[in-house]
Amino acid sequence: MEQRIFDHVKRYCESKGWGTTTEEDIIDVIREGKKVWQDEGDVHRWYIMHTRVVCIDGMFIGFHHAVVTGDNSAEDMGIDFDKNSIREYEAKEKVVVVYEPKAKTSIAHQTHNKQSTTLCEKCQRNAENSCKVETKCVYFIPIE
Predict the structure, then answer these.
(1) Which pLDDT belongs to residue 109?
(2) Cα(70)–Cα(68) distance, rounded to whole angstroms?
């Protein structure tokens, strides 16, 4: 863990009146921070290794986080927390294309005129065509 991350979290703890000063205490605060993002993870037989990003007093901090799929804990399986995985992250906005099923004709769009066409509610295209909806998503990448 970089010293500036340690110092930032330590100042945060002091502002809250918590007596956390050791590296182990700071790591616990980071691991219990408010999760703002988590990737889909790297799936293994008995666990999934995620990158999780938390926000602590305005700083985005990411680390590797194991989710065990069996009855044992990560520590029981020898998957110790890697303090070297703690890094500062920044948010990057990207546009993601999402494909949705074709819109069906709803009662509200049906008319008595046989010549009219039904429009998709989202993109106002003819419902016979696929809808391509663009959504803005926030991804977190490590600061180099």
Answers:
(1) 47
(2) 6
Per the DSSP assignment, residues forming a β-bridge with 95 are 136
Residue 74 has a pLDDT of: 79
| pTM exceeds 0.70, yes or no | no
Domain that holds residue 116: 95-136
Q: Is 113 exposed, middle or buried (0-12, 13-18, 19+ CB in 10 A)?
A: exposed
Can you give the pLDDT at residue 11?
94
Residues 75 and 19 placed together within one structural domain of the fold: yes
Query: CA 140, CA 133: separation in Å to the nearest integer?
Result: 22
Number of domains, the chain: 2
Say if CB 1 and CB 84 are below 8 A apart: yes
Of 67, 39, 43, the C-alpha closest to 53 is: 39
Block mean pLDDT (10 aa), the chain, length 144:
94 89 92 93 90 96 90 80 93 87 60 46 50 58 69
